[in-house]
Amino acid sequence: MRKLLTLPAQMSLSDAENITYENALKQATEISLNLMAVKVENHPEDFNSWCHELIDICTNRLNYDLLEQHQLPFVKKLNDLLVLGVSINQLRMLKITPWPIMASFIEKNASLLALDEQLALLSYLKITKQQSLAEMIEEDRLAFAGKHTASHDPSIYKFDVEWFSSTKSAKAFHQLLQSNPELLDKALANIPTEGDVSEQDYQNFVADYLAAHSVLDDVKPTLAPATRLLAMHRPDVFLPITNTKLDALCAAFEVPKLNNKDFDRYYKDIIQAMHVMPWYRSSCPQTEQEQLLWSVRALLPCLFYYADKSTAANSSYIKLLNKPKRATKTGATRTKRGKESAEILVDRALEADDIPAHIKNKRDSIIAEVVKGRTVAETISLMRMIFG
To answer: Which tens digits make up the pLDDT trace of 161-219?
Structure first.
């Protein structure tokens, strides 16, 4: 363990890596005796692998029974610093990475990243965004904006809508999204749906996005939810950001940390910087899978934050799908759904090839049950049991 902890001193570290290493050592000092009890056989030669090794030790190999209660925050802080170190390192490499290497990294880590689920979200939104936000049913609008709720029936929404960035904590934004979605549509209308997007296009979007919030009392518009709208509208141009990952992104791009009102710096320091990176400027690749990734390439840096075996399992879709079914007590209430939403979701489910005609003929009955609060999958399953 002593050799492992001193290894980075022999490496050629960047400034960001040096800071991460020094801060990690401070936390490790507080649990040094516990760390020394861990047997170490792997001694990595690069800083990224070193961080991964120490993360594995903190997560799986420390004897937590021997840790004092006051030491637990130091373990968490150490783990968080190492995760940050991996994210910075992987994102920083994007500045010089050509497309083939980037695509290879994504393919290699597809399972950890829940790539199929993330691409399923983008495929779904590609269809729904043919409508304006104001025209969408509430579930689709929230899917576009990045807030997962229990109303996202996992038989229809086979993905966590918060992949790439979550806006669930942006209360004012969601108030505006619910009450005046047409104002956000007006802002997005400034961004062309294809072709080049100019800085003036972006500035026009910002002006209308800020103006839209004037209908709310004493609200200061924030950057993160705006970038989610932009990224879902043009995933080949805009990278979404979240407050929790700004430290890693800004350190990797070697710019001062953005605050949540830095609309101008977001475009200059993040978007314009990304647009000159070699993988972004590459020509469209030949294979179908890579063409799909290339068409949403502005989102791909999101796949370079730290991920492990728990990343895919923490999907809200997976959690909702595996949520234990509870017996419904007599008189118990279910969360009701609007008829318009119920009709649209049922019709989508009934389009499946494995739905027999006699079940499709029960459309009105299925809709009625979904309005009452049953899930679409639960209702169709019940119909199958009854009518075969």
So the answer is: 999 999 999 999 999 999 999 999 999 999 999 999 999 999 999 999 999 999 988 88
Contacts of 302 (CB under 8 A, 6+ apart): 163, 164, 165, 239, 240
Q: In whole angstroms, what is the distance from residue 288 CA to residue 107 CA?
A: 13
> Cβ distance 193 to 179 under 8 Å?
no
